[in-house]
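Meet the record:
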Amino acid sequence: MDAPTQTPPPGYRDVSVPIESLYRNKAVIIGAILLAAVPILVHVALIGGLDAFFSRAYGDNILLFLIWIILLILAHEVVHGFGWMTAGGVGPRYIRFGIDRKTFSPYCHVTKPIRAAAYRYGAALPLVVTGILPLMVGLFTDAPMLTMLSAIMISAAVGDLFVLWVIREVPGNALVIDHPSQAGCYVKDV
């Protein structure tokens, strides 16, 4: 693990990893591939062949498909903010959005301390809202494009899942401050 880029505030410890290290972690890469493959394979197993799935997944308009991906990536970050506002009780002025310059990864950052349980909720919520719910709809309505988009969004949540793994031992009532430049947070032990 690389050294933290900033010093934790007094009374806090750093429980984070550099964002770029996620892209070099074999478990994260394998996890992302598996998380993308499983929804597609489930759809194919339930509804039909792989060729039919892919021909229907993109439809006749690849540009529309790409626009949906961009919109869902933005929605993923907005859902993080919504989760932290609702579970953490913080106002919108404490939510920041941006793009990491080193990895070109979009991010949402909560700037006010919140409880670890609320932090976990906000970290996991996009997986459910932009990944699992669309997958359920895609499977139940035989909509391969929706299943494909959800597979991409589920795979995109691998970084969030890794953060949840990194902070797995942090008690739910501990105060945390979202790390300003890394994946994870500063933790004030209880």
Strands lie at 12-18, 95-99, 106-110, 114-115, 175-178, 182-188.
